[in-house]
Amino acid sequence: MSKLKINGKEKDFSHKIPSCLSELLELLEVDGATVVAEIDGEIIERSKFETTKLQEGQSIELIRFVGGG
Amino acid sequence: MSDSRYNPSASELEEITRANIGDKIYEKLQASTVAVAGLGGLGSVVAMSLLRAGLGNLIIVDFDKVEISNLNRQQYFADQIGMYKTDAMLENLRRINPYAKITAHTIKLDARSVEELFSDVDVVAECFDVATAKQMIVETVLSRMPNVGIVAASGVAGFGRSNVIETKKISSRFVLVGDLESEIGEGVGLYAARVGIGANHQANAIIEMLIEKKN
């Protein structure tokens, strides 16, 4: 099983889950500079996206901001 | 024709606001502080709506000056072009309530100044234009300021589609407004109408947060 829950939906990764948050965002083609991330209820600051290792079964919330206001 | 204009006194304004919202809510709003970060299409509207509601303490922050390109959606006037937005907004807010407690900071906010300036406020209104700035302030408030609420906006560009702009309660102290995807870009402009819908979703969510906040 190589699963993560992303924004409430289970996502299956064919071999293994991405190693860190940055890798996940790259895979999802999302610019990390516009994302507020939470893993199992805890906010992860953007400066720690690369060093935050992911573990199977974690619940990840990604809020992406778009420009305009 | 005689000019029947007059300036109300502080107690007249207080009385009429109390009559509108009731003493209990009036006192709650009067005791509250909201920081509006960014005074563009979102912030200029949020600030006015909060002040009109009866908010006691308003902090407004922007580093920019009023430009001709702002008049399509931001609550400034042609004769204010070239002024700092903080000065122009202060002027406009004072015309709504000359007695209100308003603090203005003309600076470009970063994570450190957000923490310094906003650590004692009840709610921060994220009213920036640029996506990375939105990210910065939401992350800072959520990760470093556990007693502060934040109401942010994302996805208010373009026209029409009023009903896809939503108020989403992400947690007890984080509310997100917008359709989360309508981005400015080539051929997609900003309109007072749609940005204003988002801004008043924000103001409305903030009022609700303040009224429901336990002391």
How would you characterize the overall build of this protein?
The complex is a heterodimer of chains A (69) and B (215). With 69 residues, chain A is mainly beta. Chain A has a single domain, classed as Beta-grasp domain (Ubiquitin-like (UB roll), Roll). Chain A is 10% helix and 32% strand. Chain A has a 5-stranded mixed beta sheet, with no helix packed on it. Chain A is globular and about 40 Å long. A 7-stranded mixed beta sheet of chain B has the order 3-2-1-4-5-7-6, sandwiched between helices. In chain B, helix 3 links the parallel strand 1 and strand 2. By secondary structure, chain B is α/β, with parallel strands linked by helices. Chain B is built from 7 helices and 7 strands. Chain B has a single domain, classed as NAD(P)-binding Rossmann-like Domain (Rossmann fold), CATH 3.40.50. The longest helix of chain B has 21 residues. Chain B is 40% helix and 16% strand.
Key traits:
heterodimer; A: 69 residues; mainly beta; Ubiquitin-like (UB roll); 5 strands; 32% strand; B: 215 residues; alpha/beta; Rossmann fold; 7-stranded mixed β-sheet; 7 helices; 40% helix; globular
Number of helices of chain A: 1
Beta-strand percentage of chain B? Answer: 15-25%
Arithmetic mean of pLDDT of chain A = 95
Stated plainly, the CATH topology of chain B is called Rossmann fold
In CATH terms, the superfamily of chain A is Beta-grasp domain
Tally of alpha and pi helices of chain B: 7
